[in-house]
Amino acid sequence: MSESTGRAGRVRAGFTDLKHIFGGGQSDVRQFGILFSLIAIIALFQWSTNGLTLSSGNLINLVSQYSYILILAIGMVMVIICGHIDLSVGSIAAFVGIVVAISMNSWHFPWPLAILFGVFVGVVIGAWQGFWVAYIGVPAFIVTLAGMLIFRGGNQVIGNANTVPVPPGFTTIGAGYLPEIGPNTGYNNLTLLLGLAIAVTVVLKEWRAIRVQVSMGSAHAPLWVSIVKVVLLDTVVLFATMLFAGGREGTSFPISGIILGVLVLAYSFITRNTIFGRHVYAVGGNRLAAELSGVKSRRVNFMVMLNMSVLSALAGMIFVARSVASGPQDGIGWELDAIAAVFIGGAAVSGGIGTVTGSIIGGLVMAVLNNGLQLEGVGADKVQIIKGMVLLIAVGVDVWNKSQGRPSIIGFLTRNRNAAAPAPAEPTRKVPRNDPPHPSRPLVPAP
Fold first, then answer.
1. C-alpha torsion sign, points 201, 205, 228, 41
2. Whether residue 345 is found in the same domain as residue 367
3. Are residues 81 and 199 located together in one domain of the fold?
4. Pick from 83, 3, 55, 41: nearest CA to 242
5. Which of 41, 200, 320, 407 is the 20 to 30 Å CA partner of 375?
C-alpha cells in the first residue's frame, strides 16, 4: 500500500515538474491553449500547403504584412484592460498616413522629420480623445466612434481621395530588411547575430531566474526542467532564425519586425514592472477601489487613449511605407483585427485582464490563419467567416472556462500582476460600545 502510494506521489511530482516548463508550478497546460492552438494551426497549414507556410519567403512576408496589426494590438490590449474600446485606430492610422505623405511630397519634409511629425499628430489626436474620455466622461466607445468618422473624413478631405506616394528613404520602416554585412555565408549575417543574441538571452534569463529562486529559498523546479525549457525555446528561435536569414537575396528579417519586437519588449516591461502598468490593471479591475487606493484613474485613462493613438500613427506610417503610397482605403477594418487579436489573446471584455504577449499570440493566430487560407486559395468572403468563427469560439471557450471555475487562458500570466495591483481600501466601520455612555463624556464610536 505504501509502495503504491509512493509511486503515485512520484508520478504526481513528475507532472508538476512538467508544468514548470510551461510557466511554473501555479500553471497548467490548459492556460497556454492559445499558444498550442497557434502551433497546431501552423502545423496544419504546413501540411496542407506542402511546406509553404514555414518557407523563408512566406515567413518574411507574414511578419512584414501583419506587423502593423500587431502594433495596434499592443495599444489595444491596454485600452481593453482599462475597460474601454477604441474604434478609431484604423481611421487615425489612415489620417496620419496621408498627412505624413503630403508633408514629404508637398511640404518637402525630410523623411525622418516626417516620422516625428506623424508621431506628433498621433499625440495631438490621442490627447483630444483622451480628454473626452478621461475628463469629460464620454464613453470611449462613443468618442472613438466619432473619431472613426472624423478622421476617416479627414483622410478623404486632405488627400482628395487620391493616392499620395512616399520617397524611397521612408519605405525602409515598412519594406526594409536588415542589411547584408560581413562575409558571404549564404545567410543574412545580421539576422543570424540577432537570433543568436535572442537564444543567449533565453539562457541567461532562465539562469537568473534559478539564481533568484535559490537565493530566496523558494521552491523551484528541478534543473532538468529548466534545461528542457531552454532547449525547446532556443530550438524554436534558432529554427526561425535560419528561415529568416535564408530568404532570397536582398531579404532578411524585416525592419518592421524589429520595430514590433522593440515595442513588445518595452510594453511588456511597462505593464509588468512599472507603477503605471499596475495602475492600468487596477483601474480596469475596479476603478472605484483603485481611486480609494490613490490611483488617479483619469490620468490613467487619458494616457492609455493617448498611447493608443500614437501606436496607431506608427502603424499607419509603417503600412504606408510598405505600400509606397498613402491611399483613401488605408486602415479600413484594422480596428476589428486589433480587437480580435486582443480577445483571442485572452483579454476580458469587462477589463482588468490581458497581456501584451497574449495579444501578440492572438494576433499571430489570426495572421497565420489568414495567410494559410490565402495560400490555399480560399476566397476573401470565406476567410472573413472563418476568422469570425475563430474569434467567437476562442472567447466563448475562455468565458466558459471561467464560468466553470477554471483558470482563463491567460489567467496565470496576469495573476502575479493583479496581486501587485493596489488593494482596495477597507472602509472604516463605526461600532458602538456595549457599555452605556458616561454622563461626563459624549458617545463616541469605538475605533
1. negative
2. yes
3. no
4. 55
5. 320
Q: What's the rounded mean pLDDT across residues 159-166?
A: 91
C-alpha 80/C-alpha 348 separation (Å) is: 8
Q: What is the mean pLDDT of residues 125-143?
A: 96
All cell numbers assigned to 377: 486559395
The residue among 238, 253, 268 that closes a domain is 253
* Same domain (yes/no): 172, 186: no
- Please tell me the distance from the alpha carbon of residue 314 to that of residue 122, in angstroms, as a whole number: 8
Residue 324: how many other CB atoms lie within 10 Å: 15
> What per-residue confidence (pLDDT) applies to 163?
92
Grid coordinates given for 323? 505600400
At 229, the pLDDT band (50, 70, 90 cuts) reads: confident
- Residue by residue, DSSP assigns 428-440 as PP-B--SSPPPTT
Domain that holds residue 120: 33-176+277-420
Neighbour-count burial for 245-284, b at 16+ CB within 10 Å, e otherwise: bbbeeebbbbbbbbbbbebbeebbebbbeeeebbbbbbbb
- Give the three-class secondary structure for 26: coil
* Contact (Cβ atoms closer than 8 angstroms) between residue 100 and residue 165: no
Q: How confident is the model at residue 175, as a pLDDT?
A: 93
pLDDT for the residue numbered 31: 42
Same domain, residue pair 161 and 298? yes
β-bridge partners, 94 = none
Are 278 and 421 in contact by the 8 Å Cβ rule? The answer is yes
Q: What angle do CA 162, 168, 172 make, to 5 degrees?
A: 110
Rounded to whole angstroms, how far apart are CA atoms 343 and 102? 35
Residues 6+ apart with CB under 8 A from 166: 100, 101, 104, 105, 111, 320, 321, 324, 325, 326
Using one digit for the tens of pLDDT, what is the confidence trace for 75-114? 999 999 999 999 999 999 999 999 999 999 999 999 999 9
Q: Extract long-range pairs of 417-420: CB within 8 Å, 24+ residues apart.
A: 417/271, 417/272, 417/277, 417/278, 417/281, 418/281, 418/285, 418/352, 418/353, 420/278
| pLDDT (average), residues 124-150 | 96
Report the pLDDT value the prediction gives residue 393, as an integer from 0 to 100.
82
* Residue range 374-397, pLDDT digits in tens: 999 888 888 889 888 888 887 777
Do 156 and 328 meet the contact criterion of CB atoms below 8 Å apart?
A: yes
The answer on 311 and 211 residing in a single domain is no
Tell me, yes or no, whether 148 and 38 share the same domain.
Answer: yes
End-to-end CA, the chain = 57
